Automatic annotation (TrEMBL), chains A, B:
Residues 8-68 form the HTH tetR-type domain. Keywords: DNA-binding, Transcription, Transcription regulation. Gene3D superfamilies: Tetracycline Repressor, domain 2. The keyword Glycoprotein does not apply. Residues 31-50 bind DNA. PANTHER family: HTH-TYPE TRANSCRIPTIONAL REGULATOR BETI, HTH-TYPE TRANSCRIPTIONAL REGULATOR RUTR. Pfam families: TetR_N (PF00440). InterPro entries: Homeodomain-like_sf, HTH-type_TetR-like_transc_reg, HTH_TetR. GO terms for molecular function: DNA-binding transcription factor activity; transcription cis-regulatory region binding. This is TetR family transcriptional regulator.
Length: 201, 201
DNA sequence: CGTCAATTTGAAGAGGAATTCAAAAACTGA
DNA sequence: TCAGTTTTTGAATTCCTCTTCAAATTGACG
């Protein structure tokens, strides 16, 4: 029998297991047994904690988003120079490679968000927070005279997040010419034009 | 009994039915019965034409991509002015609204492309063709002296397609502030910076 | 009109997945 | 240690989907 755990611990385990199962089988392809297998439990045990699988999936997606976003904020918090902040943030929004689990998970939401309002709201809220994050960097840089913005900071921020999203899809789809490095350069090309700064640090 | 049709006609019907079914249930959630219902047939009839459902799904995705791309080329062919071409092409890459079926279908591929090589290849080839399309517009405009490009035409083209993709997701996810018009303006903001042209025509 | 081949149906069966639940196992606290 | 509670299992049941296939229907062609 699998090691017995407290309610809270087990729920956390299951959220992790669901994340992996979603990545492996797709948000619309996950089955109870997939989650159970990832967690090393039986279907019955999963059902004991989450009588409704779809609730667990939403929690897993939510947790994945939060983790992704907080990780970015944490990296940001270690820096002060706006140029460095911008460059590091662009990199932290891209997958490390085609298998990056955080981005793979987020990508699963893209299609589902059009069908499922809950996923739409989740994805939209992540987008908006990332836009705010970039906007803060851009505004600070502009205030310090380091950046000369070519448009509203919100416009540039929206485009930066949009570019990250899109290249995340390209990389996980294994575009033969666009990997993490190339994608970063492409986004930086825009960032340079938008900030009037050559972004070398 | 549903009207009997020739092999070719029925296969086209089924591809259309599969497109609708994918949009409704997700690429990993579609079932034989969904496709049959969309086509007004029984599961047996679907299986008679496509013994393997996944083959039908690939064909449906392929057909959807081709339709989307050819539609854009057709709009492009009616124009000569590079500025007009660029503006019209940007608009034609965005969904008409959250329910736009062509974009909804493409969005379904995003997550699946990370798991399924065939979908990855399909999506990558669409991306590359769209990049070429933009590149031709940019190069022509540059040659005519209308555009003063801020970077490689391939870099700008890649970013333009990436922005379209990403805003397609935002719009189908029903972002409350970003609709087709707003997305077009956001992309145009980048296009202006990248071409040095204010893109009024 | 009648024959033939192609298409479609509907029912039957095989295989899975979700759900339920009684029993077992594992932890808790006295 | 032991009683009580929580967690997990595993088997039984139900539900649903895919698959198969014989029979029915349709349309084409002579």
């Amino acid at each position: 029998m699998a090691q017995r755990k407290s309610r809270d611990d087990r729920r956390l385990d299951l959220i992790e297991a669901a994340r992996r199962a979603i990545i492996r089988h797709g948000i619309d392809g996950v089955q109870l047994s997939h989650v159970a297998e990832e967690a090393g439990l039986t279907s019955g045990a999963v059902l004991y904690h989450y009588p409704d699988l779809s609730e667990l999936l939403v929690e897993a997606q939510h947790a994945g988003m939060e983790r992704f976003y907080e990780q970015r904020l944490r990296q940001l918090a270690t820096l002060t120079d706006p140029v460095e902040k911008l460059v590091v943030t662009i990199r932290s929004g891209l997958p490390t490679g085609p298998l990056d689990p955080d981005v793979r998970l987020l990508n699963e939401l893209g299609g589902a968000a059009g069908r499922n309002r809950v996923y739409g709201v989740l994805l939209t809220s992540l987008y908006d927070r990332q836009v705010s994050m970039y906007q803060a960097i851009l505004d600070t840089g502009a205030a310090l005279g380091v950046f000369r913005l070519s448009a509203d900071s919100v416009t540039i921020a929206r485009n930066l997040v949009a570019l990250e999203d899109a290249y995340g899809y390209r990389i996980t789809a294994r575009h033969p010419l666009i990997g993490p490095g190339e994608a970063a350069e492409l986004i930086l090309s825009y960032a340079r034009a938008a900030t009037g700064n050559d972004l070398n640090h």
